[in-house]
Design brief:
The complex is a heterodimer of chains A (112) and B (108). Chain A is mostly beta strands and 112 residues long. In chain A, 0% of the residues lie in helices and 56% in strands. Chain A has strands spanning 4-7, 10-13, 19-25, 31-37, 43-50, 53-57, 64-70, 73-78, 87-94, 102-103, 107-111. Chain B is 0% helix and 57% strand. Classes of the chains: A mainly beta (112), B mainly beta (108). Chain A binds chain B through residues 31, 33, 40-45, 48, 50, 55-56, 58, 88, 90, 92, 97-103, 105-106, 108, and chain B through 30-31, 33, 35, 37, 41-45, 48, 84, 86, 88, 90, 92-98, 100-101.
């Protein structure tokens, strides 16, 4: 029944490693997003996708590579993890860019 | 980009009290949403309200787009209302800009 799900919920890893976060929505929405929430709880958009096409890349380092295999999924792969990548990553979806956004539970990433 | 300012940054309430949270933004928008992040980190959408007034139970929101602000009202607050309230705005551009949030603590 979960509308927007993410896996894993927690991720603890060493600097330099590569990791992926998966996101799935069962709402039939066309638009999906990745957000980063830092330690001060500030939320910032990273990527927006519409119908599997990248629309927004908000000056994110190219170590971050999103992939949308279909409209229901948006995954995030991170190469060469750095300490500053530690944060909570949220996936979200909406029917269009002008409508209510629904957020997943978040993935808490800690880079040691 | 659009600047979003929320006030107050922190609010402590006694259970049963009413409160008003404010969101000011620096440019015209056609997308404005209010979210509640509970103490467990879950982000819940409260309102999609680019203009006008909406009510949902004890919560209501008003956006005056021409004056570039929105207000979120919490009436008869409960401890479950604790958390961070975020205002986010956008302009047809597939991205929401979030304010820094208002942290609300409701004491029993």
């Amino acid at each position: 029944d979960t509308a927007v799900s993410q896996t894993p919920k927690y991720l603890v890893t060493q600097m330099g490693n590569d990791k992926s976060i998966k996101c799935e929505q069962n709402l039939g929405h066309d638009t999906m997003y990745w957000y980063k929430q830092d330690s001060k709880k500030f939320l910032k958009i990273m990527f927006s996708y519409n119908n599997k096409e990248l629309i927004i890349n908000e000056t994110v380092p190219n170590r971050f590579s999103p992939k949308s295999p279909d409209k229901a999924h948006l995954n995030l792969h991170i190469n060469s993890l750095e300490l500053g990548d530690s944060a909570v990553y949220f996936c979200a979806s909406s029917q269009t860019e002008q409508e209510t956004q629904y957020f997943g539970p978040g993935t808490r990433l800690l880079v040691l | 980009g659009i600047q979003v300012e929320q006030s107050p940054p922190d609010l402590i309430l006694q259970e049963g009290a009413n409160s008003t949270l404010r969101c000011n933004f620096s440019d015209s928008v056609n997308n404005l949403q209010w979210f509640h992040q509970n103490p467990w980190g879950q982000l819940i959408n409260l309102f999609y309200i680019p203009s006008g007034t909406k009510q949902n139970g004890r919560l209501s929101a008003t956006t005056v787009a021409t004056e570039r602000y929105s207000l979120l009202y919490i009436s008869s607050s409960q401890t479950t209302d604790s958390g961070v309230y975020f205002c986010a705005v956008g302009v047809n551009d597939y991205k929401l800009s979030f304010g820094a949030g208002t942290t609300v603590t409701v004491r029993a």
